[in-house]
Amino acid sequence: MKLFFLLLMGITFFPSVAVHAQTEADDRKAILAVMKMQEVAWSKNDLEGFMQGYWRSDSLKFLGSNGITYGYEPTLANYKKRYPSADHSGKLSFKVHTITPIENESYYVMGEYFLSRLVGDANGTFLIIFRKIDGQWKIIADMSS
After folding, report:
1. Which end of the chain lies in a sparser environment, N or C, as judged by fewer CB atoms within 10 Å?
2. How many domains does the chain have?
3. Burial 104-113 (b: 16+ CB within 10 A, else e)
């Protein structure tokens, strides 16, 4: 009887663990794809394309060296002001250290960014929060320094 119970538990529990692990792997892959799209867009000085990875909402939050910015449009305006040309935006690359689930369909991503630019390189760290919104992974909060 004890063996039957253990077998029943194994049949019930282990498939759900495997499905959960696969879902997290798929989520991580999708999040990395968004970040890859951002690297490509940024490196073409396509700031609107880069911003496609962000939640288009007044509730978006961005914390940088100048304090907190609320909303998609003000965040885009700040990027356009700070990076007015391809010489300023340069080539972007990310080094992701960790992608960690927070809750269902939300993850935080920690890593580093590297900007190779004619006006001088700029590197730093980031912590961004992704949430799946309407079937798409979007950044809802960004803290970059």
Report:
1. N
2. 1
3. eeebebeeeb
Closest Cα to residue 125, out of 100, 99, 109, 144? 144
The band of 104, judged by pLDDT with boundaries at 50, 70 and 90, is confident
pLDDT, tens only, 42-54: 999 999 999 999 9
Q: Where are the beta strands (DSSP E) in the chain?
A: 61-64, 67-70, 91-103, 106-116, 122-133, 136-144
Query: Residue 105: what are its φ and ψ, rounded to 5°?
Result: 65, 30
The contacts of residue 16 (CB under 8 Å, 6+ apart) are none
Per-residue pLDDT reduced to its tens digit, 124-141? 999 999 999 999 999 999
Distance (Å, rounded) from C-alpha 103 to C-alpha 123?
30
Q: Are strands 61-64 and 136-144 parallel, antiparallel or unpaired?
A: parallel
Q: Which tokens go with 52?
A: 């496609």
Domain containing 101 equals 2-144
Q: Checking DSSP bridges between strand 67-70 and strand 122-133, what pairing results, if any?
A: unpaired
